[in-house]
Design a protein that fits this description.
Length: 446
């Protein structure tokens, strides 16, 4: 066979009375659904391998076998390495190993942070390899991925559209690397339509709830940590990574330079979640700044009591003896303290959302809030807190139009919904139907 030539053929597993495989002699091969299609191609010699025909099979139709034959032939002509037997599982393991290198060059692009690698590993081991690992890389199609995703959703009630999108992002990233490495001609994951995943509306504590919680934990060792998160919107890891050198108590400013990350039982300090959050300046209110001054005084006294046994890492929030606080332990302590305070259960991360919602209610510009939170863009902030922005937008509209001089006033006041029997309005929104009637703009009826 001349290099580059190939052919397709059909085979089945039928055997004769002596137990010998019939192969092409099987009379049932003429039936459309009997047997599977294969191809054979004579590839040019690749480095580290002998020149010999390569066979690949298991195709349901002759057309699929011919398509795979042409793909292998075209790759060989372009001088690309052809590994017909490499599966999705093989590629995912190689890709993850390259992404998690701590030194040397990576063949699949830049490496990722340990926390991201941990999530990738969970997605690969728990979902992608069990459902797609057996599929050969060069045969992967969008249909395979779609069927796998349906099985993942049906087989685990904890997996919803949002989690599926993260699993899909992991797979898509690995396949993009395969395309760049010329193992695939295109990324089939790009053709898969995912179910809609609406961003959940954040429901942080109301001011009264937050005040009750902060009063309850005032004497607790973690009380000042939670108060700083609630007032500044710092992420858990960012707060635990703060050093006293990052805090300017005389000016009431915190500079966020790093975060504490926990992978398994190991802790390490790394960069912030987003580039926009790195070295960002967050201003403190006077109450929080005063609480930090008192906290430092107590920590200095504790350092003196421990003497030479004190672990001096310069941390603002540390466990007894100066060591690093466990992020998981902090997260577990939060709901217990909330229950003791008798407030509605929320997540620790909702303290960050609460800091943003308080500023929105106070009329702070969303660009300033986005900068405080370290979001990658204002669009992320607006999307997250869209349901809290309606009142702010109304205030902005009123303030803007008040700058426009008018000769006469169209309305003297904004009518609102009538109060109920308890003296309260049924909602806090303007009754627009009343505005329409007040202006004489009722729709015409026939």
């Amino acid at each position: 066979m001349v290099a580059g030539e190939g052919s397709t053929f059909k085979r089945c597993g039928c055997r004769d009375d002596a137990g010998k495989q019939l192969g092409s002699r099987c009379p049932k091969l003429r039936q459309r659904r009997h047997g599977r299609w294969y191809f054979s191609v004579d590839l040019p010699r690749q480095e580290g391998a002998e020149r010999r025909p390569r066979r690949e099979g298991g195709f349901a139709t002759k057309a699929e076998a011919e398509e795979a034959l042409e793909l292998s032939r075209s790759r060989a002509v372009r001088g690309e390495r052809v590994e017909l037997k490499q599966t999705i599982g093989d590629w995912l393991r190689f890709w993850l190993a390259e992404k998690t290198k701590t030194s040397g060059a990576s063949a699949v692009g830049k490496t990722v942070r340990p926390t991201t690698a941990r999530v990738y590993r969970q997605h690969i081991d728990s979902y992608l390899i069990p459902h797609l690992g057996h599929v050969q890389l060069n045969q992967l199609r969008a249909e395979h991925i779609s069927v796998a995703y349906d099985a993942i959703l049906d087989g685990n009630r904890r997996i919803g559209p949002s989690t599926l999108r993260r699993i899909h992002a992991c797979l898509s990233s690995s396949l993009n690397a395969a395309v760049k490495a010329r193992r695939l001609d295109f990324n089939p994951a790009a053709q898969v339509r995912l179910p809609d995943a609406a961003r959940p509306k954040v429901q942080p504590w109301e001011p009264a709830e937050l005040g009750r919680f902060l009063d309850h934990i005032a004497g607790h060792r973690l009380g000042i940590l939670f108060e700083v998160i609630a007032s500044t919107g710092l992420r858990r890891g960012e707060a635990l990574g703060l050093r006293w050198s990052d805090v300017e108590l005389d000016t009431g400013v915190v500079v966020v330079r790093r975060q504490l990350v926990q992978v398994g039982s190991a802790f390490h300090f790394g960069p912030t979640k987003t580039g926009a959050g790195d070295h960002r300046i967050v201003e403190l209110d006077s109450r929080t700044a005063g609480a930090l001054v008192e906290h430092r005084r107590k920590q200095d006294a504790e350092r003196q009591r421990w003497g030479s046994a004190w672990v001096d890492e310069g941390l603002v929030f540390a466990r007894e003896g100066g060591g690093t606080l466990s992020p998981e332990a902090v997260t577990k302590a939060f709901p217990r303290l909330a229950r003791e305070a008798g407030v509605r259960p929320v997540r620790l991360h909702d303290l960050r959302h609460g800091a943003a919602s308080l500023r929105l209610a106070a009329g702070v510009d969303i660009a300033a809030i986005s900068k405080m939170l370290g979001h990658s863009s204002i669009a992320v902030t607006a999307d997250t807190y869209s349901h809290l922005l309606r009142g702010v937008g109304r205030q902005a509209a009123e303030a803007a139009m008040n700058l426009v001089p008018r000769g006469t006033s169209v309305t003297t006041s904004f009518p609102h919904e009538p109060a109920g029997d308890d003296g309260r309005h049924s909602s806090g929104r303007t009754a627009w139907s009343e505005v329409v009637r007040h202006q004489g703009l009722e729709p015409r009826t026939r």
